[in-house]
TrEMBL record:
Biased composition regions of type Polar residues, renumbered to the chain: 379-389
Entries under InterPro entries matching the protein: Endonuclease_MobA/VirD2
Origin species: Pedobacter nyackensis
Lineage summary: Bacteria, Pseudomonadati, Bacteroidota, Sphingobacteriia, Sphingobacteriales
Xref: Pfam families: Relaxase
Coiled coil regions, renumbered to chain: none
Domain MobA/VirD2-like nuclease residues, every copy: 17-151
Region (Disordered): 365-419
Protein name (Swiss-Prot/TrEMBL): Relaxase/Mobilisation nuclease domain-containing protein
Superkingdom, taxonomy of origin: Bacteria
Comp. bias (Basic residues): 409-419
Amino acid sequence: MVARIITGKKLRGVLNYNENKVLEGKAELILASGFAGDIDRMNFSQKLQRFENLLMLNPKVKTNTLHISLNFDSSEKLKDETLQQIAVTYMEKIGFGDQPFLAYRHNDAGHDHIHLVTTNIQATGERIDLHNIGAIHSEKARKEIEIEYSLVKAESKQYKPEPGIKAIDITKIKYGRLPTKRVISNTVNAVINAYKFTSLAELNAVLRQFNVTADRGAEDTLMFRKKGLMYSLLDEKGNKIGIPIKSSSLYTKPTLPSLEKQFVKHEQGRLQFKRGLKETIDKAIKPKGTKDEFLQALKAQGIAAIFRIGANGQAFGITYVDHKNKTVFNGSDLGKAYSAKAILDAIGQSKTSQKASDHLQKLMKTTRMSTESVEKTETNPIKTDTPEINSKLLETLMKDHFDPSGQPPKKKKRKKLRI
C-alpha cells in the first residue's frame, strides 16, 4: 500500500474533485465518518457545510485541508468493507480518528485506491499539526496496515506501482459522452495536487501522459506576454483537438502565476526522492541493450522516461516522471550521467555517434574512389617527388589567386596622364 498526502487551503476544491468523479461514474462514496443523517441524501453543499463549520472555529489557520489517497497493488481486488476498515484504521493511526472524513473509492486507474477528505481543525477550534505528517505518522501506519490486512508491501518486488490517474478516453470526448471542460479540470487538478514539478515543461511531461497539455502560445503573442495559459486535449498522436480551455475558467484556476508559486515550493519537496530515482535508473541501464528495454525496465518501477526529440530526429533531452513518488525531474537535474545523450551512450544507442561514424565511413569511401579515379585517368602525371618541386608547384597554382590575409587581390590603379 502506498499513501499520498496532500495538504492545502481549499477544502471546497478537493471535495468538488471527488464529487465530480462520482457524477462521472468514476468513483463512489463508500464511507462518511462523523456525518449525521443519511449521507446518500446529502448534496454537495451539505457535505461542505459540515467541514466549514469546523473551519470557522479557527479562521486564522490557512492550511486546513487534508487530502489522502491510499493506493493498493494492481493484483489486489478489495471489497468495499475491507477498504472501509482500512480507511478507519489508517485515520486513527495518523491522529484523525475523531475528525469527520469522507472516503471515496475511485475506479479510474488500473489498481484499487481510495481518497480521504478531511480537515485538521478540531471541534475545540485547535488545529492538528500537519507538518511532516507523512514521515512521522503515515509511514508507520501504512506498514502496520499492510501486515494487519495482509496487503502487498510497497517495498516488495511484487508491488506494481501505476499512475493513480487514468488517461482521458478521447473516443468518449469525440462523441460528446463526456463534457470537455470537466474532464480537463479533473485531470489537471489531480496532477497539480499530486505531482511535484518545477516548470511548465515538467508539468506537461505529466499531463501529456493523460492526454492533456498546457500551452502559453507563441512568444510574440499577447497571451504569452500576459502569462496566459490554455489547456487542451490531445489525441493518440499527441495533437491538440477540440477547443482550448482558459486556465482561469477552470474551477481551481490553475493559472501560470499560481503554478509558478508551486514551482518554487516543489523544488525542495522533491529532493528527498532524487537519490532513489537515480539508483532505479542505474539499474535499468544495460550495456548493449535497447532503448525500449531501458524504457520498459523503468516502467516496471513506475517511472516514465520521455525523450525529447528535435527536428533532426535526435534526442536533445529527457524527462523522468516518477509515478510512485509523484515527482518529475529533467535529466540535467539529476546529473550529467542521466542526460539523454549519456543514457543513449550507456546503452549503445547513441544516434549522434552512429551518424558520425556512418558519415566518416562514407567520407573515407568517397576519398578512396576519387583517388582511384584520378590514378586511372591521369596519362601524364606531374612528378612531385621532391619538396622543392612541390613548393614551386603550389606557388604557381596559387599565384594571383590567394592572399594570406584572406582578402581578394587588389586591382592595380592606372596612373592618369596629366596634360
